[in-house]
Amino acid sequence: MSDYHLKAASALGGAKHQLIQIGDYQLQEISNLAIASVASRTGESERVASILQEVLGATAPGPGTVSTGQGGLEAFWTGPDQWMVCAPHDDRELLARELKEIFADTASITEQNDAWVCLEVSGPDLVPVFERLAAFDIDRFHQGSAVRTVIEHIGCFVLCMETRRKVRIFAGRSFAHSLHHALKNNLTSTVALQAIS
User: Fold this and answer.
1) Arithmetic mean of pLDDT, 9-31
2) Are 185 and 156 part of one and the same domain?
């Protein structure tokens, strides 16, 4: 019999999420997430959007937006008639199964729990951090905004959780260390530039 035991690990490889402080900024891995994709089936677009609105208890997000709903649920638009839905993993571990029961034959639901890394950057003003890092206008990025962009050649979804002060970044799990390294380096550079200006 094997002495090896399986141990849960976050996308960055730790037993718990990582948090680092760089000057006034924080870079944190958000690992306690249940994630499911929702894709409307042919002819069911309006019905799926309506069901999603009921599930969230908030407006179903359209292009370039994220909605925060009831019970810790969040959803962001990923493409025409497609969304990603997130919830605290400890509370909604079987989120995908729940959504399959609710949406029935109107949408295709896929569990995404281990497919993504979610990193959160927060601080007093994120404009100097992201204006050199990604190809979107951080100055016009307000709470509830979402964008699909590229950071250091890594395709990402960036969600504005608090205007100028907090963003969440979703990328493929295999890019976790590269994305974390890019963000950490950029935060370090930003703090160093602020110190000499």
Assistant:
1) 86
2) yes
Residues 128 and 166 occupy one common structural domain: yes
Evaluate whether residue 190 is within a structural domain: yes
184 and 150 together in one domain: yes
Q: Are residues 38 and 98 in the same domain?
A: yes
User: 86 and 44 share a domain?
Assistant: yes
183 falls in which pLDDT band (50, 70, 90)?
A: very high
Q: Same domain for 23 and 60?
A: no
Q: What is the pTM of this model?
A: 0.92
For the chain, what is the domain count?
Answer: 2
User: Tokens 């963003």 correspond to what residue?
Assistant: 167
Tokens of 39: 């894709």
Q: DSSP for the chain?
A: ----------TTS-SS--EEEETTEEEEE---EEEEEEEEPTT-HHHHHHHHHHHHTSPPP-TTBEEE-GGG-EEEEEETTEEEEEEETTT-TTHHHHHHHHHGGGEEEEE-TTTEEEEEEE-S--HHHHTTTBSS-GGG--TTBEEEEEETTEEEEEEEEETTTEEEEEEEGGGHHHHHHHHHHHHHHHHHHHHH-
